[in-house]
Amino acid sequence: MKRLVAGVLLALALVACQTQPPDQAATGPVLTGPLTVASQGSFFLGGQDVRSDTLSNSARYEPSGTITNDQVYVHYQTPVDAKPASIALIHGCCLTGKTWETTPDGRMGWDEYFVRSGYPTYVVDQASRGRSAATPTAINAAKVGKSPPDQLPTLFAIGRENAWVNFRFGERYGEVFPGMQFPVEAQAEFWKQMVPDWLESLPTPNPTVPALSELSKRLNNTVLVSHSQSGIYPFQTVSLDPAGVAAIVSIEPGRCPAPTEDVRPYVKLPVLVLFGDYIERSPRWSPRLQGCREFVDATNKAGGRAEVVLLPDVGFHGNSHMLMQDRNSLEVAGWLRQWIEKHVE
């Protein structure tokens, strides 16, 4: 009888162990409770002094003086017992670093998720976007007649009608793809994130690129995670100088490097190009996916470790272009965390 009772107790204990939730190392970060950080702050990268006589067209302020231009703002949080690799998050067209913060419907953003995962996390505002201030000099020069109107900078904003289609919420404004994950009930909050885009008025290379190189060197083990318009920037950064870059994660890039370009700078790095869902239904995105596949093939033929992953192929369905804000955004972030843990020391 004692042996029988002991056997039953042992069996119950084994069942209890099997039904306990796995430890944090297996499941990822604790997503509730206090967020403990060792440090947080912000700084600027790059920038140059500019002397101008068209700083103002207001009678209240002097038009002449010196300002700083082309600087890039970075906000960071460092967790306690941080991992050796850092994550740098770079937003896309017509947006700012808000892309990676709290979602439009109030859920945790990727910035907090990766801090909770143990990674020092750096959120970038591209040059002339968000807290990386743009210069008014060319606009003021045209207004006061010091330069012709055709010298005005190219500046654009994208209306919600075009963004709806470009970001693959649906094929037409107001229509939603079946099973689409973006929280359209909170779209009013998303539209507030949109800002004017100065990209076409900036010098080449975009000042964000050397800033990312400076950031990577400073951190010395950086995963550059870019999105859309900025998707090409990590590649340009590595071509400029690979120092400090640990991996490239390009999420739905506007373009990848052409397969005919020199791919040798990327051969020594793990490279992930990640796409969401409904690509085949988008005339805008299907050619971009094909171009990235050709780049990956060329890189791997040269001895690289690059891959293109479509989220439906790894079990995630319904993701829009804004997959870091979709309803399953943390599940996607968890998959990406595992990819980083596998490829980056």
TrEMBL record:
Keywords, in A-Z order: Signal
Gene3D superfamilies assigned: alpha/beta hydrolase
Signal peptide: 1-25
Organism domain of life: Bacteria
Name this polypeptide is given: Esterase
Organism name: Pseudonocardia eucalypti
